[in-house]
Amino acid sequence: MANRRFEMYEYRQILVRMRQGESDRELAKAGLIGRKKAQGLRARAAARGWLDPSLLLPDDAELATVLTPKRGRPAVISTLEPYRAQVEAWAEQGIAGTTIYRALVRNHQFTASYSAVRRFLQSFEARRPAAASTVLEFDPAEAAQVDFGAGPELVDLQTGEVRRTWVFVMTLCFSRHQYAEMVWRQDIETWLACHRRAFEWFGGVPAKLTIDNPKCAITRACARDPEVQRAYGECAEGYGFRIDALPPRQPQMKGRVEAGVKYVKSAFVPLREFRDIADANRQLRAWVIAEAGNRIHGTTRKAPLTLFVELERALLKPLPDVPPELAAWKRVKLHGNCHVQFEQCLYSAPYRLIGELLWLKATDTTVKLYREHELIAVHPRLRIPGARHTLTEHLPPEAIAYRLRDPQWCLKQAQSIGVACHTLIERLFAHRVLDNLRAAQGVVGLAKRFGPVRLEAACARALAFDDPRYRSVKTILEKGLDQFESFPAQGGLLPPVYAGQARFLRNTKKMFH
Fold first, then answer.
1. Angle of CA points 188, 320, 147, to nearest 5°
2. Span 475-506, pLDDT tens digits
3. pTM for this structure?
4. Lesser CB count within 10 Å: N end or C end of the chain?
5. What span, in angstroms and rounded, lies between the C-alpha atoms of 472 and 432?
6. Domain spanning 154-315: CATH 3.20.20.370
7. Residues β-bridged to residue 178
């Protein structure tokens, strides 16, 4: 009892009994105070006249000034006293103690240990007034809170890899009834799809959703003027709820869903086995209804599912007759290959817009490209990384021409020119190594410059010399070798007879006259 701390009302009881004539021994026997302490109290009370029954006892404040013991050791001046103002300013900014210590050593040649900084910061925090909080109250169907939490690692059946999962939780603020789902990603498409399934789970839509600032919902976090993701804004308009984006780093302002995420992670996830993510979600939905929904909530003292069914469900906004289209929007640049990239897949757009920024709208089945508000392309949604979908009309004319002039086109054009040309094109395509599509296109294209008759003759000459190449045919045409009346068969020894006009031919009689 020697070290027990007495409250003022206990001192008052003891003084009353002393004024009634009880001895120190009697007070000790009653367990009110030890004899030595009673002796000291009696001496101080007698010196101030407190034992006189005819006088009133002083109030608790006066008793405290006399009877409160002086505790603690003598004050020790901290080695940080010369830097108090600077260190307190840093502490107000939330700078870590280790960072403050290194700055003092670096800038002020501080020689004490880090413990001095730690003790100084602890005393500073103790002097600061405690932060007050307010419990928010919500009417039925007024609001819900949404958040992601880390889930268990599961096997992805598509890849066979062990991957981390996330738990999406939407908690109704009034009843505390919740929707929970495990997902692989936190992207905008997953975010929107989880909202749709949550609203269908509740059978309605709350008036307001309180969220943090995930990138899938808020593109620019701000306490006053947050910027909402375009796709999430369209979802809110379609379902008729308002978005309440909290100030950055203020998770305590949505404490109901924070507690809901912790509850799922602590009460559902441990000691369970999941074959895959589908099996985990089946178990999770059953657990939300059977256990989480029927537990007695620590705050409301009622089962969340009971409050939801009896009071909140009927007040939710009805689901729209036609669910809004859930689509992801993204700004993309049209590259020089006439394609934009989205989730490692490529989609074409008109070549005249190369270098411009376009809006891409992706749904489960389609990808649409917009130039501001003008729809310029529609593609099927691709899922395999590296896949490409190209519309021919989006390519420049030379690329379209190349794509259209395939081997079948070349053979058809060659057949209309002649047998020799068709045979030469077939031999080009029969090459064991080279593709020769461009060579075949070039040979057929020579008909525009030299005419089909000369081209057929040039192809025949090239075949006769077993040289079926574009360069050979072009050289024959440019040098006029196709105009010889005849030429030897392959491997022959007779020189060709030229039937055309010899430009540089001289009279032999005049030469040898």
1. 35
2. 999 998 888 755 544 444 334 444 455 555 56
3. 0.63
4. C
5. 19
6. no
7. 171
